[in-house]
Design goal:
The complex is a heterodimer of chains A (179) and B (77).
Chain A lengths: L1 H11 L4 H16 L34 H10 L8 H11 L4 H5 L4 H26 L10 H13 L12 E2 L4 E2 L2
Antiparallel strand pairs in A: 1-2
Helix pairs in contact in A: 1-2, 3-4
Chain B lengths: L12 H41 L3 H11 L10
């Protein structure tokens, strides 16, 4: 998923979704199973993909069958009642890479994502602190306590927002903040 | 062969989901709007009404004048 995000920008600019999906699944498939190791993906022919929303991929997962898989395929042409459960599972695994159970399995990726996010946020916090200490100019004189007190007094004298705002919190009879 | 399970629903899945979720959505939206109207709208209207019941504009003006914030009129001493 992180890989998909990383590829997202370069992949989606100026390409259609089919090509993007090809690139995404290409790297994914190569990473997981090492199918097409040497040559790149040929995006002009149907490709295999595990998707929760589209259950039947265009091609079977295993393209090059070894001898016992060939034999199994021959047996599949006969009555399926003759197939043992292991053979049925083997046929399934020839056709599909991940079952729905595999696809939907929860993993710990969220921990990596959250951890990485927090690390970067924390690092940003360090940068921000360093900036306040070494980069920012001195604060304007209007931020002094004395100035702010005089400013608040003036705001109350003007009765700023006397209904629901600032001056509404001041008790003018007792000359203090309302409790 | 294991025991036969019931045939799953093949049609009307979206309609069923929509029937439920539309009802929930409308109810929640109306509830939110109602809550906002009461908590924010009505209470604000009441605050304004109460304020202006007891409001004396001239008294308020004289108070501001004596505080010295105006430039056109000076405090009364």
């Amino acid at each position: 998923m992180l890989l998909a995000q990383m590829l997202g920008f370069s992949v989606f600019r100026g390409t259609n979704l089919l090509r993007a999906r090809g690139l995404l699944s290409a790297v994914g498939v190569r990473a997981i199973h090492g199918h097409e190791v040497a040559k790149g993906e040929d995006l002009s022919v149907p490709m295999y993909c595990d998707r929760k929303d589209s259950p039947l991929p265009d091609i079977p997962y295993v393209q090059k069958l070894n001898t016992e898989q060939e034999a199994l395929k021959e047996k599949e042409k006969g009555s399926w009642k003759n197939l043992t459960n292991e053979e049925k599972i083997a046929l399934y695994r020839i056709a599909f890479h991940q079952s729905y159970a595999d696809m939907c399995k929860s993993n710990s990726e969220w921990k990596t994502v959250m951890g990485g996010t927090f690390i970067f946020i924390g690092f940003t916090g360090l940068i921000v602190w360093w900036q306040t200490a070494h980069v920012y100019p001195p604060k304007p004189h209007t931020f002094n306590e004395e100035w702010k007190e005089k400013q608040a007094k003036r705001m109350l004298d003007m009765q700023m927002n006397p209904i629901e705002g600032f001056a509404s919190k001041w008790d003018y009879e007792k000359n203090e903040w309302k409790k | 062969m294991s025991s036969v399970i019931a045939k799953p629903a093949m049609r009307g899945l979206l309609a069923k989901r929509l029937r439920f979720h539309l009802a929930v959505a409308f109810t929640l939206s109306i509830a939110c709007a109602g809550a906002f109207k009461v908590a924010v709208g009505d209470s604000r209207k009441k605050a304004y009404a109460d304020f202006y019941k007891k409001y004396d504009a001239m008294k308020s003006f004289e108070a501001m004048r004596d505080a010295g914030i105006f430039e056109s009129v000076k405090p009364r001493k």
